[in-house]
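DM from R.C. (forwarded with permission)

"hey, sorry to bug you on a friday — could you get me a structure for this? deadline for the figure draft is monday and I only need the backbone to look sensible"
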Amino acid sequence: MSAFSRNLRYSAALVPMLLAGPAMAELDEVRFGVPPWPGVTVKSEVAAQLIEAMGYETRQNDLAVSVILEGLTRNDLEVYLGGWYPVQTEMVEPLVEQGKVEKLVSNIRGANSGLVVPQYVHDAGVTSVADLDAHRDRFDGEIQGIEAGTGINTAILEAIDNDLAGLGDWDLRESSTAAMLAQAERKMADGEWLTFVGWEPHWMNVSFDLAYLEDADGAGIAEIGSTVWTVVPASLAEEDPQLHRFLSQYVVEIEDQNAWVHGYSYEDRPADEVASDWIGENLDTVAGWLGGVEARDGTPAIETVRALYQ
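My reply, with the result:
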């Protein structure tokens, strides 16, 4: 069976069976919890292919975050690469404090989110939220948002309600992420001015020439920093030191994950193809992740990877 075809995808309907299964005494198989987010999907696929090259079986289970965290506490899953802080802080930290899981490493660091403008608007002098209102007519007094109820939309609405940075008479247009980005692409093609919600990692940072606005008046709608953590069972370091070492060194550059998401979501390529192509073209980066890590047969892990991808 090929390295790719072993990545079985389980639906949420199989969650009870997954969580009911016994924890493995030895790690022949490494089980990932993968929420329905493109960035985590490809990031998990890259890790899985490297782990398979080391001699393990892998399984990627498509599950909700709450179910993933429960699975980690029961040793029914080994890896979760999507612990997004500060959004999931209240979900993960109690489990860390109880000694049930380990917050192993921040695999994405310094991720940014907030309001963005096209680079040509930024070059024209709109560099912070404080600059928006002086050009209200050019923006039609609108901020393009994503799905209603999301944290960034709530922050924007609070800034409008409190007239921060002169936004009191502005409107937030809530929409789906896909619709927002489609409209942004159309407007930018015509050279129009607009501001909308942006974040990284995401393919928008590859496809569009964007600039993130600086915050102003404590509005809290720009320069919102995030960190994504790798979360594993607290027992993993003892159970499999080599796997634990690899995961502790698996730190992804934002630009790389932007490219992964662009290939997977924007170009609509299969995640295994995106991952395989990237690994083959970036073996120096992979060597850093696998430094000092041994495959299951005792050989240096990077040697087993190079044998497959060179």
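R.C.: lifesaver. Residues 1-25 have pLDDT under 50 and may be disordered.
me: no worries. Strands lie at 8-10, 29-34, 57-62, 79-85, 101-118, 142-144, 171-173, 196-199, 210-212, 224-233.
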